[in-house]
Amino acid sequence: MVDIKHQNNAIADFIFQLRKERNLSFADLEELTGVSRGVLHKIEIGETKHPEYKTVKAISPVLLVPYFQVIEGYIENENRVDTLLEILADIITREETCSLAPKVALRLLESPNKGTEVSLERLFNFTQSMKNDSLKVALFEVIIQYSRGHGVMVYLAKGMLQKYLIERLDFKRLEQTYQKGQEILYYTDFLSREEKITFYFRMSLHAHNTKKYKDCIKLCNEGINLENRDTELKARAYLAMINSYSHLKHYDTVERYLDVFERFEYDFVAEAAKITRAITKARKKEYDIAVPLLRSYMNELSSKYKISVATELIEIYLQTKDMKSIAELLEREREFLPKNPESPHTNYGIGVYYRQKGAYQLEIGTVYEGIQSFVLSMHAFGKINETKEREVCMNQIFTYFLKSNKQLDLQYVRMLKEVYNIY
Q1: How far is 401 from 409, CA to CA, in rounded Å?
Q2: Do 127 and 139 touch, CB atoms closer than 8 A?
Q3: What Rg do the C-alpha atoms of the chain give, in angstroms?
Q4: Angle at 241 between CA 240 and CA 243, to 5 degrees
Q5: Phi-psi domain of 46 (left: phi exceeds 0; alpha: psi -120 through 50; beta: other)
Q6: Which segments of 46-152 does DSSP mark as H helices, in order?
Q7: Which residues fall within 8 angstroms of residue 350, CB to CB, at 6 or more apart?
Q8: What tens digit of pLDDT does each residue of 224-239 get?
Q9: Long-range contacts, 77-82 (Cβ 8 Å, 24+)
Q10: 14: how many CB neighbours lie within 10 A of its CB?
Q11: Measured between alpha carbons, how far is residue 154 from residues 109, 134, 200, 201, 318 in Å?
Q12: 171, 385 in Cβ contact below 8 A?
């Protein structure tokens, strides 16, 4: 390839290289690009220092360098916010240039042509409208770092919130993303009322899913104090708070709050209230009330709740040594076992079910099947990074072999080691 002509103008260099390499006239290049020969000539000789972006886009397909390199050079001298936004919108649609998005975003924020807050607002609104979550996270990180460095607390808080709302959906990083969410608690004064409501309720659900039950209750109450409407998010956070009280064994409080929860007019409320009341009776060891209710709900409730009903019934049967009822329930596994679990709660329920099934199978002497069930349990817990629950599975297995004086066959050890090292 021939030497470059202008050290300070990448587009001029690229045009010069192309013409000399391919022996093209400006007329030839005009025909190839649709850009007039006069414009092309001015760019090459350096008279036009920084051509319009639309001109660069028209020329770039015929150049001898990748589009990534063309854009990377172009943005170094671009200060117009509108143009940088146009470039950003373009490059995020191309696989070969999308990695440039953070660099373009930072260039936009550093533009001297607009005030810092105006540029932050425009970039923030643009980022919110995007569909690619991984790119959104990268751009929100640019907003966060720039806002922090320039003391713009509003967009620091907004950027942190939006990044958290995306990252919290990664079930395998629930603990890490919860810690990031907690950082936002220091900046809530800079969020709007609606943003605060969203944050407190989403964080309360997150706290419940990571077993931080006291945090869940506190965060939910913060949201309730702000939200005077009966929204679906409020109802779901309310249910998480009720379940947190249940885990803390405050069963009278559970039943009191259920009376309030039942007033929400959403499809999931009636079924959720029914099963929660039945489970509360079970936790209070009022089995004479709980068992008939749970049995009836196995037939009445929609499929998404049946795994919770099943695990609660099996837990009662294990406590009462009712092996016959467990066997009958296991025969109905296809009815209640979710095929495509999507939430941490559902994956957790599957993990509990297989652990219970494994305990039952060991109890009746079907050791190989029992180990297999524990392996499936650990797989389910691994999907939501429940390390402690997987350790409970291992402890139950080893306790069984210690008490029974049986040898832990090598094939079992290999099976357990394999699944334990996956996560």
Answers
A1: 10
A2: yes
A3: 30
A4: 65
A5: left
A6: 53-59, 67-75, 81-91, 101-109, 116-129, 133-150
A7: 307, 337, 338, 341, 377, 380
A8: 999 999 999 999 999 9
A9: 77/49, 77/50, 78/50, 78/53, 78/107, 79/111, 79/112, 79/113, 80/111, 80/113, 81/108, 81/111, 81/113, 81/114, 81/118, 81/119, 81/122
A10: 25
A11: 15, 23, 17, 20, 54
A12: yes
Residue 257 corresponds to which amino acid? Y
pTM: 0.83
The residue extents of the domains of the chain are 1-77, 266-336, 338-423
- Report d(CA 123, CA 85) in Å as an integer: 8
What pLDDT score was predicted for residue 383?
87
Q: Considering only residues 180 and 404, tell me which one the structure prediction assigns the higher pLDDT.
A: 180
How confident is the model over 237-260, as pLDDT tens digits? 999 999 999 999 999 999 999 999
Which residue bears the tokens 């779901």? 236
CA–chain centroid gap for 329, Å, is 34
* Number of neighbours of residue 402 by Cβ within 10 angstroms: 10
Other Cβ atoms less than 10 A from the Cβ of 340: the count is 5
Structure token pair of residue 348:
């957790």
Mean pLDDT across 310-324: 95
Q: Which residues of 275-301 are buried (b: 16+ CB within 10 A; e: fewer)?
A: bbbbbbbbbeeeeeebbebbeebbeeb
Average pLDDT over residues 79-91: 94
Residue from 84, 80, 121 nearest 101 by CA: 84
Q: Report yes or no: 144 and 190 within 8 Å, Cβ to Cβ.
A: no
Percent of the chain with pLDDT over 70: 94
Q: Give 76's pLDDT tier (boundaries 50, 70, 90).
A: confident
Mean pLDDT confidence for 268-278 = 94
Two tokens at 201? 């309720």
Instruction: Judge whether 241 and 261 are in contact, CB under 8 Å.
Output: no
Pure H helices in 320-409: 323-330, 333-336, 344-363, 367-383, 387-404
CATH (one of 2.160.20.10, 1.10.600.10, 1.10.260.40, 3.40.50.2000) for 1-77 = 1.10.260.40
Give the length of the chain.
423
Query: Tokens 């709302």 appear where?
Result: 165
Give CA–CA dist 140/134, Å, rounded: 10
How far apart, in whole angstroms, are the C-alpha atoms of residue 88 and residue 317?
60
